[in-house]
Each structure stands twice: as structure tokens, then as C-alpha cells.
Design brief:
The structure is a homodimer.
Chain A lengths: L2 H6 L13 H13 L6 H12 L5 H12 L4 H26 L3 E2 L2 E2 L1 H4 L2 H22 L2 H24 L6 H26 L4 H28 L2 H4 L5 H4 L5 H9 L4 H7 L5 H13 L2 H19 L7 H13 L5
Antiparallel strand pairs in A: 1-2
Helix pairs in contact in A: 2-5, 4-5, 4-9, 4-17, 5-7, 5-8, 5-9, 7-8, 8-9, 9-10, 10-16, 13-16, 14-15, 16-17
Chain lengths: ~325, ~325
């Protein structure tokens, strides 16, 4: 299978338990694409490039499943799903610029052939589109949560930027993955619950599901940066380490081998390709990958437990299946 | 008077007709500054730097005057004023990065001593804060307008970026100043009118006032890039021409002297300091500055006329005085 196809058609697009929202996701896709029309043509082309690169659309999927389970309005959920995915896309565009990344989802990033100026503005434009869709829902609570989530994500990125090449703690890591990923999943599940008019207790359970599944998802993402292949994850392996970003496997490894000289070199930024390869091999061989996945499973179980009092509908089973699928995925 | 003082204490902070909102503007300032607390300290420092650089705060002033004239809720207007000024500030941060500008309001830009990454993220963070404040107002109409305005501004910047070094028309210029400035003034006046619960006709009149005063303000800003001094405008003279951006004085000049070889060189980007100085001198000597200011006065008069049916209160007189002041200002 050619690479582009594998990435664009990622596993989460082909699982039975998501069949019940397949048409809704089509609507989300259409709505997102419609937001590039009527503006500058180069901008439209950039958005088309970004959206056609695929991606799992996991955030809108979670929003749709939670919202349908709790019987929120269908149109609101489509707007919510598109808004969250665009917010996520905008942060990726700025992230790639900041990291100087050239590949994402197996495709060249905007950053790789656009000027930084065009990349900044395209990200800003996608933020604006996300905000317009969120405003269109017409819920001040959801809009407030949307704005707050953007602040949390950006603050997380700023903290990471300023703490690069510095050692960090497991606590800081957990904070970081919440800011980066958990918060957006919470935006998805909490907004869906708010829009359904559910009682406070249920809204809080939706928050827990979102936060835990988001954190599990990010831990697995960080593990895949060690265990994946360039083909499956759509970017070079070891990107985090190369940029001096410490994730859970490396933190566990450092607890076991605090004096590893090669790792020290890599983290200090004084390394060549061979050093990086050596460190990646050592970390993979050390058992910390399994330990990290075990941690991800804990989060996933907590997410499933949060759904205990929810109505027994097919969407609930799909949310359970999704939580379990996420920690077993390899792309 | 030292430069920093002149810029920070710009003329619009010292005019009698704005005395009636002086305390409100203090509240807006405090609210803006409070948004840097509780986040990464370097981010707080960056926001403090940006906010203490001053600026005329003309957008919140217009929002406050219009809102008080139409008797909108006081707290909503403070939130609105801070939200709009932060949105404006965020776009300036990204703009300075895009232009590579080193000075703004007589102070170094973030861009001049921060990395591009930190600058992008600081702008994003300020967007998020602006969105949070706008959401806090609790009006879905205002939130929708806020998001739409962000899209209009960014689309304008993208159009400008892609059309640099190309000749443009007066029509394109007017479109551009609306996107850049008029739209934000409309956000101020229309939101204030919406929050007051005014009738549709009055809301539309508020839109006209905002659009026309915003456009007048931008034309004068563009003129000051020719007639000001580095001390009064807080950045080097001729910045627009240097970057190949055509504004009204240059467009008028080109209509009169379509074959000016030195201007052609400057617009093509193949110029030295002497060429730029020569062109600036020719444009200033040609009478197009006066023609541009006359055009600005037309917009200002239209703004004043839009207020005709409004209640005769001191805020109305202040809005009239402001419209007249704007076209006579020299900083």
C-alpha cells in the first residue's frame, strides 16, 4: 500500500464501531472544506492541502459519539466536530512552523514550502474559522470553553518551548499531555454533554472520559515516536528526542539509567544521527515502552469507568471500544 | 519630551472629550493586564511589554462611547473593550513577525528579541485571551461577530502578503483598509449597539460610524508613514513603501506620475536608502498627502452624519469630536 494511502486512510477510519457516525463525519468533512471558499485562492489551496492529508478525526468522532449518546442536537454536533478539528489543525500548523517540521501525516507540512508569514496567517485563518463555527452553535458556555481550551493549548506550547533541553518530571509530562491533547478531548466531550442539557454529574463524567481518553491517546502517540515507522506515523521516528522533548518512555528510561551518556548528549542537542539511533535502540530495548503502554491502559480504563452510569446505547459501546482501540493502535 | 513618553502618552490620551470614559479605560487596562497572570512567566513579561508600550486604545474608547451612549451594560463594555484591544494586539504581534518589523510605538517589537516561535505563540495566546473575554460577555451575536472579524482581518493580511510588490487599485486599497482597520472599529461599535438592545436601524448606523471612522483612521495612519517622524509614529518613516505596500498617497501619486522610474525601482524592491528618501520626498512634495487627508475627512464626515438620529448626550458629542480629531492628528 502506498504511504500516502496508509496515512490518509488510517485505521480509525475502518473500524466497525465507528460505522454509526460515518455519515456525520462526512458532514463534518464537508463543513470544514466549505470554510476555505470565498477567500484568497492560495488560502483555499492551503486548507485543502491540510484537510486532504487526512488524519483520524478522532476529536470530532468522540464529540459525535458523546453527543449522540446524550441526545444533543445533530446540527450542533456537526458544527462542534468541525470547529474542534479546525482548532486542532490550526495548532498543528503553528506547531510545525515552531518545530520546523517538514512532514506531518506523511505529507509535506505547509511550513516546508510556504514562507513562515503565510504559515502563521494560514494558522490564524483556521483559528478564525474554528471560532466562527463554535460561535454558530450559539452556546455561550461552549464558546467560553472553546476560548479557554485555546488558551490552555497555547500555554502548554509556550511552557514546552521554554523548557526544551531541560529535564522535566513525570508530573510536568502529565500536565503537558493534558494541555496538548486531553484539553481538546475535554472540549469535545464536555461541549457535547453541555449541548445535550445533561445534569452536572453527567457533564463531569463526560469531562473525565474526555480527559482520560485524550491522555491515553497522547501517551500512545509518544510511544509510537519510538516504535512506529516513518511510513506508519507519517514523520521521522524519534522526532521528540531530536527536538529535546522528553516524553514518558524517555522519562522512565532516565529513572532507570540517569547516567546514560549518549542520551545526555542527545538531550543537550550535541548529537549526530548515530547517537540518536543508538539512544532510540536502547530505550526500545529497555522495557519502558511496555511500561508506558501500561500507563496508557490505566487512563483508558478510567475513561471507560466514567461511562458507567450512561445509557446503554450503541454509542456508549462505541466509546468503550474506542478507548480500548486507542491503546492498541499502531498508527 | 523623551520619545518613549511621547509615544506612550499619545495625544488621544489627553483630550478633554475623552475625559468621560477615562475611568472605564483604566478598567479596560487592568482587565487586559490581568490576563497574563497565572501563566508562564515569560509570557506574562511579553504581555506586560506589549501592553505597557501604550497605544491609543482608540478601539475600546469607541466601543465605550458608543455603548454608553446607547446604555449598554457597563461590565459588558469593559469586557468588550479589553477583548477588542487584545484582538488588535494579537494581530500586531503576528504582523510584526511577518513584516520583520523591529519597532512599534517607539518600542522594540517582540519579534526583535524573541524567537519567531515565541512570537507566534504569544500572538496565539493573546488571541485566546481576547476570545475568552469576548465569550465572557455571554452574547452569541457578539461572539459570532468577533470570530468573523478575526477571519476578515486575517484574510486581508493574506491578500496583502500575496499581492506585495504588485500594483494595486484604489478599490483594492479601500477593501484592504476595511479589512485591516474598519472591521475592528465595526466590531467595537456594532457590538456595543447589539449589547444595548438597540433597534436594527440604530445598529446599522453604529456599523456605519465604526466603518467610516476606522477607514478615516487608517488613511491618516498611512499618510503619517510619509509625513510623520520616527519619534512621533514610533517606527521608521516610509515603512510601507520599503515593504512594497501601496497606500493611498502612493496610489494618487502613481495616477499622476505613472512612469516615475525611482518609484518603480522602490516598488520592485531594488532600491537603496537614497532611492527611498528621494521617492518619499517626491510624494510629499506632490500634493497627494493633502488629497489623501481630504479623502479621510470625507469618511470622518460620513461617520458623524451616521450619528444624526442618536440621543443628544455627551458621549455623542465625544464621538463627533473623536471623528474630527482623528483626521487632524499628527501621531
Amino acid at each position: 500500500m502506498p504511504t500516502g494511502c496508509l496515512i490518509g486512510d488510517s485505521s480509525l477510519n475502518n473500524v466497525d464501531f465507528l460505522e454509526l457516525i460515518a455519515e456525520d463525519i462526512e458532514e463534518v468533512e464537508e463543513l470544514m472544506r466549505s470554510r476555505s471558499e470565498g477567500y484568497h485562492p492560495d488560502l483555499g489551496a492551503a486548507m485543502e492541502h491540510l484537510l486532504s492529508a487526512g488524519g483520524k478525526r478522532i476529536r470530532p468522532k468522540v464529540a459525535l459519539l458523546m453527543g449522540k449518546l446524550l441526545e444533543a442536537d445533530q446540527r450542533d454536533l456537526i458544527l462542534l466536530g468541525a470547529s474542534i478539528e479546525l482548532l486542532h489543525t490550526a495548532t498543528l500548523v503553528h506547531d510545525d512552523l515552531i518545530d520546523g517540521s517538514l512532514l506531518r501525516r506523511g505529507n509535506p507540512t505547509l511550513n516546508s514550502d510556504w514562507s513562515p508569514a503565510a504559515t502563521v496567517l494560514t494558522g490564524d485563518y483556521i483559528f478564525a474559522q474554528a471560532a466562527e463555527l463554535a460561535a454558530e452553535i450559539g452556546s455561550t458556555e461552549v464558546m467560553g470553553l472553546f476560548a479557554e481550551t485555546l488558551a490552555v493549548i497555547v500555554n502548554g506550547e509556550i511552557s514546552q518551548l521554554f523548557s526544551r533541553k531541560k529535564l522535566t518530571s513525570r508530573k510536568a509530562y502529565l500536565q503537558r499531555i493534558y494541555e496538548k491533547t486531553g484539553s481538546l478531548f475535554v472540549l469535545a466531550t464536555k461541549s457535547a454533554a453541555l449541548l445535550s442539557g445533561s445534569a452536572e454529574e453527567r457533564i463531569q463524567a463526560a469531562v473525565v472520559y474526555g480527559r482520560e481518553i485524550g491522555n491515553a491517546f497522547q501517551i500512545v502517540d509518544d510511544v509510537l515516536d519510538f516504535t512506529g515507522t516513518r511510513e506508519t506515523i507519517g514523520k521521522p521516528i524519534g522526532s521528540d528526542l531530536r527536538q529535546g522533548v522528553l516524553t514518558l518512555p524517555t522519562l522512565y528510561y532516565l529513572e532507570e539509567k540517569p547516567d546514560d551518556q549518549v542520551l545526555e548528549k542527545v538531550l543537550a542537542g550535541h548529537h549526530n544521527g548515530a547517537d540518536l539511533k543508538e539512544v532510540l535502540g536502547r530505550i526500545k530495548a529497555s522495557g519502558v515502552v511496555q511500561r508506558s503502554l501500561q500507563e496508557a491502559r490505566k487512563y483508558s480504563h478510567r475513561a471507560v469507568r466514567a461511562l458507567e452510569g450512561f445509557p446503554d446505547k450503541s454509542e456508549k459501546q462505541a466509546l468503550i471500544d474506542l478507548a480500548e482501540f486507542i491503546v492498541g493502535r499502531d498508527i
